[in-house]
């Protein structure tokens, strides 16, 4: 036993690994909570859009010597507002609006980086840098995570109704425009927080996969939130821990683990898994193929 456990505990002996593991778990919990709403509302593309739309904000923040989270949040909120504005005033479908806005912001970010290549660490934006995160960045993430969890905890029922049936929400007197804006703001802030952990490429996975996995495991939204948060936090903790032994990207380890769990649930979930659905389909086909019982004279009368 003593020969097995010390090597497994080696990552916990390094301060940078402890910080990475704890911060990853916190980000994973917030992303898991928010991903339930994204899955329910069908906002998968929105998460992808915001993860790319923050790039110009990061470039500007680096050039001005500001915290990159401030610039990323600013352009994230601007992109979200732009999408809402264009969608409300044109007949374009939401996916088209998202595609136009996020590609425009991403292109602007790449242009700014190409103009001032020494001012921005492009690899940090794309892949994240959780192992080198500073105390100031940790403080920012904690504030964002605490605020997001507080708002979601207080307003999750209202946000659920807005996502599920906005017309019913308006009929009940809820301000759907404000709640919609709140959800976009939380999504933008969480995207910025996760950006530092896994980068712009993989942040969308952390914002979608836990909720999608939880959706296949339960039909109750309250339980879905619990499962999504547990999956987000657990996979982030284990992924960050395992990245030490694989000597690989922390974000890659986290998202790969989330994907493997999703695939397992996709095939073997007790109610909505592919294996179970095929069993039910075969059972229904077998029952339909059975000849109907003959009706007796007494039954006919």
Descriptive account of the structure:
- The longest helix has 42 residues, at 176-217.
- The chain has one domain: Orthogonal Bundle (ABC transporter involved in vitamin B12 uptake, BtuC), CATH 1.10.3470.
- It has 14 helices and no strands.
- It is mainly alpha-helical.
CATH architecture: Orthogonal Bundle
| Strand-pairing-aware structural class | mainly alpha
Based on Cα principal axes, name the global outline: globular
CATH superfamily: ABC transporter involved in vitamin B12 uptake, BtuC
> Any idea of the CATH class?
Mainly Alpha
Largest sheet: none
Helical proportion, percent range: over 70%
Distance between the termini: 78 Å
Structure in a nutshell:
The chain is mainly α. The chain has helices at 5-8, 15-41, 44-53, 55-64, 68-89, 94-115, 122-127, 135-164, 166-171, 176-217, 221-246, 250-268, 274-289, 297-300.
Strands, helices and their partners?
Elements: H1 5-8, H2 15-41, H3 44-53, H4 55-64, H5 68-89, H6 94-115, H7 122-127, H8 135-164, H9 166-171, H10 176-217, H11 221-246, H12 250-268, H13 274-289, H14 297-300
Name its key features.
single chain, ABC transporter involved in vitamin B12 uptake, BtuC, 14 helices, 0% strand, ABC_BtuC-like, ABC_TroCD, transmembrane helix, Iron ABC transporter permease
């Amino acid at each position: 036993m003593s020969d097995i456990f010390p090597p497994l505990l080696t990552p916990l002996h390094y301060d940078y690994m402890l910080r990475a593991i704890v911060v990853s778990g916190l980000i994973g919990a917030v992303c898991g909570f928010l991903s339930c709403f994204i899955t329910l509302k069908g906002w998968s593309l929105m998460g992808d859009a915001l993860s790319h739309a923050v790039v110009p904000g990061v470039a500007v923040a680096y050039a001005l010597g500001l915290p990159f989270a401030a610039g990323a949040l600013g352009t994230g909120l601007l992109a979200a507002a732009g999408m809402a504005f264009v969608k409300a005033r044109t007949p374009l479908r939401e996916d088209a609006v998202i595609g136009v806005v996020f590609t425009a912001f991403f292109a602007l970010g790449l242009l700014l980086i190409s103009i001032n290549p020494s001012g921005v660490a492009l690899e940090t934006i794309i892949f994240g840098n959780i192992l080198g995160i500073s105390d100031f960045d940790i403080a920012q993430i904690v504030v964002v995570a605490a605020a997001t969890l507080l708002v979601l905890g207080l307003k999750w029922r209202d946000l659920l109704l807005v996502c599920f049936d906005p017309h019913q929400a308006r009929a009940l007197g809820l301000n759907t425009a404000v709640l919609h804006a709140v959800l976009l703001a939380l999504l933008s802030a969480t995207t910025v927080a996760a950006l530092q952990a896994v980068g712009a490429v993989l942040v969308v996975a952390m914002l979608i996969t836990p909720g999608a996995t939880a959706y296949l495991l339960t039909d109750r939204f309250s339980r879905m939130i619990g499962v999504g948060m547990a999956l987000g936090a657990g996979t982030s903790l284990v992924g960050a821990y395992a990245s030490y032994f694989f000597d690989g990207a922390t974000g890659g380890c986290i998202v790969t683990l989330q994907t493997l769990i999703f695939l397992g649930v996709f095939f073997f979930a007790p109610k909505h898994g592919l294996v179970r659905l095929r069993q039910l389909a075969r059972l229904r086909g077998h029952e339909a193929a059975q000849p109907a019982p003959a009706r007796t004279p007494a039954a006919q009368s």
